[in-house]
């Protein structure tokens, strides 16, 4: 059996002036007490999880950080620092690296037969959306976990569990700044890795734990926080011991203790059920694919990735068409028109006419036409969305009945402010698609979900989202195919939109592995998993 791993954790030091409930003036004395504790406790490793300072200006912050760095010299065990959001308001990442004398990129190290992972995500807070995920961060974590056979412990600044923030002084009314928008994807990645036994974070200024798939997701109280300790600095730090169990204790005025068994490697809880209505609908869907006469194809991840055709996709579409299969393509992207997408596909050798393509912009325009033949609208979205709405009879005016939200990378805050004004006057919020982001050639690009989050937060409304997984858009695709749903299957790469949407619409589905990673949350099971569209063509038309 491996020796007991001993860790000392301190986070959210917030050295600086007292601000709100942060007693910054107590930070250095409390940090000195932490040093004394470390000397007595003799841990194998010390982790400092970010937000070392309360940002004031570059010169002041640099001086504060130097004093923090002094307290980490001469410790009896190695240590590592993570970046927090406050650490990079006035100081750069390079400033932090220079003063702390360590790089601030992702880092991992093996200690006492455990693999310690310091996952340095982008912790800058972007207004209004909060934290913006980077695909490169996800790729690094997946590769790092795959490269070790040891039990892994992940340290981050921002928690990965998405736990309740009800009652939290800072985040009860600011939820998107307290957690990550892609926490489900992160948890799915951790589940697939199979070797993570513990996740530890700070940021939210209280002690908390969630058990997800048998893994404790712990957050540790801030060193200088006072909202849970009647105005006195909590003086909180944590000790964690790991052997056959995880034993966590937060010391100071805000104490907590926990002991849970260590999850076995590649041991998992049962996958959660889908929503009951989806489960009931799924039970009604026929099994097998022998009688399929038409396909609804997702585009990005099935036909192409970004601007690059997926190998074999053009031949697969041709094979399906030659075999008599009817095809409609359905995309949640409303930035371009069906004609634009048809031209893009043609450039990749895929022949699909514009009248066989549905965008979420088209779907939204058609939905509004069912509500009012000449709906009065305010548009916060792309030129392509505007053209679709006008073509369907929508009228832009100063007293709209609907605010229609999509994404436009040139959108101005003034546009969003005007949208909020109309929403407060009674306009309904209609959105093209829920996706918060999409893969781009240089990483991640924001999508309509980010705009929706802003408008919902500012207006108090909940958007009605027309795109996938709403069954409305699948019903529109069935109408284009001219087929009954019992003879149609959906082919997609995203469980949350393609497979859930197919299930809600009562359609069979094929989840392909050529785009997004499969198994994100296991919301609904597809009829079948296949590698790519080539495999679909081989199965359906031989």
Question: Keywords, please?
Answer:
single chain, about 550 residues, alpha/beta, Purple Acid Phosphatase, chain A, domain 2, Rossmann fold, 3 domains, 6-stranded mixed sheet
What does this structure look like?
The N and C termini lie far apart (54 Å). The protein folds into 3 domains: 257 residues, Metallo-dependent phosphatases (Purple Acid Phosphatase, chain A, domain 2, 4-Layer Sandwich); 130 residues, HAD superfamily/HAD-like (Rossmann fold, 3-Layer(aba) Sandwich), CATH 3.40.50.1000; 94 residues, 3-Layer(aba) Sandwich (Rossmann fold). The radius of gyration is 26 Å and the shape is globular. The model has no long low-confidence stretch (mean pLDDT 93). The protein is built from 15 helices and 27 strands. 30% of the residues lie in helices and 22% in strands. The longest helix is centred in the N-terminal third of the chain and has 15 residues. By secondary structure, the protein is an alpha/beta fold. The relative contact order is 0.10.
């Amino acid at each position: 059996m491996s020796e007991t791993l001993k860790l000392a954790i301190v986070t959210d030091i917030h050295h600086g002036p007292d601000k709100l409930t942060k007693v910054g003036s107590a930070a250095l004395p409390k940090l000195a007490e932490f040093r004394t504790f470390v000397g007595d406790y003799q841990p194998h490793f010390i982790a400092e999880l970010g937000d070392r300072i309360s940002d004031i200006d570059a010169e002041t912050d640099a001086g504060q950080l130097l004093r923090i760095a002094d307290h980490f010299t001469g410790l009896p065990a190695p240590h590592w620092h993570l970046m927090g959001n406050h650490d990079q308001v006035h100081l750069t990442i390079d400033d932090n690296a220079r003063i702390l004398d360590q790089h601030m990129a992702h880092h991992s190290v093996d200690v006492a037969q455990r693999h310690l992972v310091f996952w340095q995500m982008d912790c800058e807070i972007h207004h209004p959306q909060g934290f913006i995920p980077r695909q490169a961060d996800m790729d690094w974590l997946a590769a790092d976990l795959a490269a070790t056979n040891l039990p892994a412990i992940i340290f981050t600044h921002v928690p990965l569990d998405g736990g309740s923030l009800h009652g939290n002084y800072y985040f009860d009314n600011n939820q998107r700044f307290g957690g990550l928008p892609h926490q489900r994807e992160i948890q799915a990645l951790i589940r697939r890795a199979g070797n993570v036994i513990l996740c530890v974070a700070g940021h939210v200024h209280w002690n908390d734990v969630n058990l997800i798939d048998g893994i404790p997701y712990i957050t540790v109280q801030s060193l200088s926080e006072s909202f849970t300790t009647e105005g006195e600095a909590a003086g909180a730090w944590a000790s964690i011991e790991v052997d056959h169990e995880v034993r966590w204790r937060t010391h100071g005025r805000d104490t907590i203790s926990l002991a849970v068994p260590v999850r076995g490697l590649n041991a998992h809880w049962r996958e959660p059920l889908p929503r009951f209505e989806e489960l009931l609908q799924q039970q009604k869907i026929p099994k097998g694919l022998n009688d399929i006469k038409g396909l609804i194809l997702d585009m990005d991840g099935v036909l192409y990735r970004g601007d690059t055709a997926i190998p074999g996709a053009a031949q697969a579409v041709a094979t399906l068409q030659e075999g008599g299969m009817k095809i409609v393509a359905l995309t949640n992207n409303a930035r371009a028109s069906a004609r634009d997408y048809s031209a893009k596909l043609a450039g990749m050798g895929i022949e699909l006419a514009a009248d066989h393509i549905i965008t979420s912009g088209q779907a939204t325009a058609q939905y509004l036409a069912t509500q009012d033949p000449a709906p009065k609208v305010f548009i916060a979205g792309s030129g392509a969305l505007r053209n679709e709405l006008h073509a369907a009879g929508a009228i832009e005016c100063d007293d709209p009945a609907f605010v229609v939200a999509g994404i436009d990378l040139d959108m101005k805050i003034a546009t969003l402010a005007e949208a909020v004004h109309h929403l407060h006057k009674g306009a309904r919020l209609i959105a093209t698609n829920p996706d918060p982001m999409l893969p781009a050639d240089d990483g991640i690009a924001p999508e309509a979900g980010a705009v929706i989050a802003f408008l919902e937060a500012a207006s108090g409304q909940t958007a009605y989202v027309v795109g996938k997984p709403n069954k409305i858009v699948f019903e529109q695709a069935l109408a284009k195919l001219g087929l009954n749903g019992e003879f149609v299957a959906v082919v997609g790469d995203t469980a949350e939109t393609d497979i859930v949407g197919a299930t809600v619409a009562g359609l069979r589905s094929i989840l392909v592995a050529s785009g997004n990673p499969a198994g994100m949350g296991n919301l609904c099971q597809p009829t079948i998993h296949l590698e790519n569209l080539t495999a679909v063509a081989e199965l359906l038309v031989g």
